[in-house]
Amino acid sequence: MYRLVALGLGYLLGGIQSAILYGRFKGIEIRNHGSGNAGATNTLRVLGKKAALIVFLCDVLKAVLAVILAKLLFPEMVLLAGLYAGIGAILGHSYPLFFKFKGGKGIAVTVGAIYMIDLPTALIVSLIFIISAWITRIVSISSLLLTSFIPILLFVFYKGNEHIVEIVTLGVVIAGITAYRHKANIKRLMEGTESKLGSKR
């Protein structure tokens, strides 16, 4: 039961689309500009640094809130409840119920969730993202690397846990959602046409 409740809670909170709402406040439908993605990276391209920072922080905070609430509701299963809430938030952000199921790619949400789920994992994947972004200047590569290490690190840190199979499986689900949401980016990476930081594309 806690799995469904945590997942649903995360989905509803994740569906609060800060990029879309901020864009509309500024008189812009963010999904009709730039890459068409309702997230912080496209907000940076379309509306600038201040807007992107606001959107990023809002997306992080909604995931943080989802995981915290799930942990409070199910204190005996904090890790799994947090993971399900985090996945729910990512899905809600990616496929928001009240915005025609067209949202963002969920990286900021993933970051917020993983910081509340397991701090060592969060710090390591954040470092991986920063190093990758600094070297490549390509957000999609860095995002894919960030999430691909989540199941690996969860296994390393929780291999003695009785729920290790489910824990790692949920980590794989997070990485899988990211890969699926970035399928167009992966295609462009293979073609050598993917946008870099600073590009307006």
Notable traits:
globular; 0% strand; 201 residues; 10 helices; mainly alpha
Describe the model:
By secondary structure, the protein is mainly alpha-helical. It has one domain. 73% of the residues lie in helices and 0% in strands. The protein has helices at 2-14, 18-25, 40-47, 49-73, 78-94, 107-117, 119-136, 139-158, 164-181, 183-191. The protein is globular, with a radius of gyration of 16 Å. The termini are far apart. The model has no long low-confidence stretch (mean pLDDT 92).
List the helices and strands and how they pair.
Blueprint: H1 2-14, H2 18-25, H3 40-47, H4 49-73, H5 78-94, H6 107-117, H7 119-136, H8 139-158, H9 164-181, H10 183-191
Helix pairs in contact: 1-4, 1-5, 3-4, 4-5, 4-6, 5-6, 5-9, 6-7, 7-8, 8-9
Pathway: Lipid metabolism; phospholipid metabolism
Pfam family, one: G3P_acyltransf
Membrane topology: Multi-pass membrane protein
